[in-house]
Amino acid sequence: MTDTDLIPAPLTARTGGDAPGRPSLDERTTLDAGPGTEATARWLRSVLGAATGLPLADGAGPHAVRLRISPETAREHGPEGYRLSTEDPEAAVTIDGGGPAGLFWGAQTLRQLLGPDAFRRAPVRPGAEWDLPRVTVADRPRFGWRGLLLDVSRHFTAKEDVLRLLDLMAAHKLNVLHLHLTDDQGWRIEIERYPRLTGVGAWRSRSKQGHRASPLWDDTPHGGFYTRDDIREIVAYAAERHVTVVPEIDLPGHSQAAIAAYPWLGNADVVDTAALTVWDTWGVNPNVLAPTEEVLRFYEGVLEEVLELFPSTFVHVGGDECPKDQWKESPAAQARIAELGVGDEDGLQSWFIRHFDRWLADRGRRLIGWDEILEGGLAEGAAVSSWRGYRGGIAAAEAGHDVVMCPEQQVYLDHRQDGGPDEPVPIGFVRTLSDVYRFEPVPPGLSEAAARHVLGTQANVWTEVMENRDRVDYQVFPRLAAFAEVAWSALPAPGDRDTEGFLRRMETHYRRLDALGVAYRPPAGPTPGQRRPGLLGRPIDGPPPIV
Ligand code: TNX
Question: What's the EC number here (predicted)?
Answer without folding.
Answer: 3.2.1.52
